[in-house]
């Protein structure tokens, strides 16, 4: 039961991690869909990029913890 919950959590975190990484791509990915053009203010764009980096780090740590927990259960 616990392994199933951890597997589902790992899949969800992985999907969110892929989405956040795609949002960070400057020329490709999902960045142009969310207003990644050159006419925006530098300061607000910089804050969004910083937020995405922090979210990426947090999701990576959560994914690693979930992977280790699943390995420990196996």
Can you walk through the features of this model?
- This protein is an all-alpha fold.
- The protein has one domain (2-35, 42-73).
- The protein contains two helices and no strands.
- Helix 1 packs antiparallel against helix 2 (42-73).
- It is elongated and about 45 Å long.
In brief, what are we looking at here?
With 74 residues, this protein is mostly helical.
Strand content: under 5%
Q: What's the count of strands?
A: 0
Structural class: mainly alpha
Low-confidence segments? none
Which series of helices and strands comes N to C?
A: HH
Please estimate the helix content: over 70%
The overall number of domains is 1
Indicate the radius of gyration in whole angstroms: 16 Å
What is the general shape? Answer: elongated
Summed over residues and divided by their number, the pLDDT gives a mean of 85
Give the secondary structure arrangement, pairings included.
Layout lengths: L1 H23 L17 H32 L1
Helix pairs in contact: 1-2
Which features does this protein show?
mainly alpha; 74% helix; 74 residues
């Amino acid at each position: 039961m616990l392994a199933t919950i951890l597997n589902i959590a790992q899949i969800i975190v992985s999907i969110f991690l892929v989405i956040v990484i795609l949002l960070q791509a400057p020329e490709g990915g999902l960045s142009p869909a969310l207003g990644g053009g050159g006419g925006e203010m530098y300061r607000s764009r910089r804050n969004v990029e910083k937020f995405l980096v922090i979210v990426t780090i947090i999701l990576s740590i959560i994914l690693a913890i979930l992977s280790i927990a699943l390995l420990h259960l196996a």
